[in-house]
From TrEMBL:
Gene Ontology BP annotations: amino acid metabolic process
Organism: Pseudoduganella dura
Protein name: Aminotransferase class I/II-fold pyridoxal phosphate-dependent enzyme
InterPro entries for this protein: Aminotransferase_I/II_large, AspAT/PAT-like, PyrdxlP-dep_Trfase, PyrdxlP-dep_Trfase_major
Cofactor: pyridoxal 5'-phosphate
Keyword terms, alphabetized: Aminotransferase, Pyridoxal phosphate, Transferase
Length: 381
């Protein structure tokens, strides 16, 4: 859908893009200043595949101070965004044919990456609260993928839920990948890391981080993973022939970004936008949309209107020039995902008004249509 937006824009058409989250904020001033300073250096050499030693040490210190993860530099690998960390983790942790559990709705990359690696994917509907009963109902698996905070629902896992997951991992011998890319975008509650326990290495927990959303650095492709040391050499050996090290300038940017910590101005802006859009949808009868506890997305239930949200999205971009992500892409037909952090407020309002206009049109057509009848059968002569 985002590629459709780019194509339409290249043709001179005005399009509002809610299909992904592209922040209207610039990258932090500290990041831009650090990169400007680095550009004054006469050389930008290759670095170690896993990242600059100093950067890995500083990221380990961030993990200890902010995430309460007992990590050292030897546990950190710097990657080109979260997707590379995900691919390399799954490649090392599982073999073709192994089962990986993905909780639905899900970031599409989890399923796409598992398919690429020939894994057996089991989709399980994520409950409102993760407890022992839910986990015990899951099948045997090599890897469980957890997204906390969650894309697209905005769920933030509670400490009791994380404790249940850790106990389940111990009892099953299942490893876990935890995507914590939205750790800095929590509006309500507090973020806790699954790996904040003494035996995270023994449990086989890989934790993935990204600067893309938390620091408005989508195009910088700055991410890293905290990995049990037993798997680190394998992940570095894999990264070597794929991309080698992350670009030196990106590593400089990553170091500056993750040193910032909290981002109160960005968070306050997103909270106000979240509340604006939720309020706009509140009187609309065919959609249910709660204010998410975190993240750059809104997740709307439109099943009262249609379960074919792919068709809804196609009509919206074709006729209204507004792009959204249909729920089918995230494993849940009947839902839509809206990235609400792009452009200015006036554009945001116009885009939401277009979604409402299309839904009202379809709801009106449905309500006024004559009742469906079985095909008539002509009596035999």
């Amino acid at each position: 859908m985002h590629e459709r937006v780019d194509l339409l824009k290249s043709q001179g058409k005005r399009v509002i893009d809610f299909s992904i989250a592209i922040s209207h904020f610039p990258a932090p001033a500290q990041v831009r200043a650090a990169v400007r300073t680095a550009l004054k250096e006469p050389l930008l050499p290759y670095t170690a595949v896993g990242g600059l030693p100093d950067l890995r040490g500083r990221l380990a210190a961030k993990l200890q101070a902010e995430n309460r993860i007992e990590a050292a530099a030897r546990h950190v690998i710097v990657t080109n965004g979260a997707k590379q960390a995900l691919y390399q983790s799954l490649f090392v942790m599982a073999d073709p044919g192994d089962t990986v559990i993905v909780l639905r709705p899900h970031w599409p990359a989890y399923v796409a990456t598992a398919q690429l690696l020939g894994l057996n994917i089991v989709l399980a509907d994520q409950p409102d609260v993760i407890d022992a009963a839910f986990l015990d109902g899951l099948p045997r698996a090599r890897v469980l993928i957890v997204n906390n905070p969650h894309n697209p629902t905005g769920k933030v896992y509670m400490p009791a839920e994380l404790a249940c997951i850790r106990a389940w991992l111990r009892s099953r011998g299942t490893a876990c990948i935890v995507d914590e890319s939205y750790e800095k975008l929590v509006f309500d509650g507090e973020h806790h890391s699954l790996a904040a326990c003494p035996d995270w290495e023994a449990l086989g927990i890989v934790t993935i981080f990204s600067a893309s959303q938390g620091y408005a650095m989508m195009g910088w492709r700055a991410g890293f993973a905290c990995v049990p040391h037993a798997w680190m050499k394998a992940m570095e050996a894999l990264q070597g022939p794929i991309t080698a090290a992350v670009p030196a300038l990106t590593q400089v940017a990553a170091g500056a970004a993750f040193a910032i910590g909290a981002v109160p101005d960005l968070l306050a802006d997103y909270r106000a936008r979240r509340d604006l859009v939720v309020d706009m949808f509140a009187p609309v009868p065919w959609i249910a949309m709660a204010a998410p506890a975190s993240g750059p997305y809104l997740w709307g239930d439109v099943s009262r209107l249609t379960n074919d949200t792919a068709a809804f999205a196609e009509t919206l971009i074709d006729e209204y020039r507004v792009a959204i992500m249909p729920g089918e892409a995230l494993g849940c037909p009947g839902f839509i995902r809206i990235g609400y952090i792009a452009d200015d407020e006036a554009t945001l309002r116009r885009g939401v008004a277009a979604v409402i206009a299309l839904g009202n049109r379809l709801a009106g057509a449905r309500d006024t249509a004559p009742p469906a009848r079985c095909p008539s059968v002509r009596a035999a002569d």
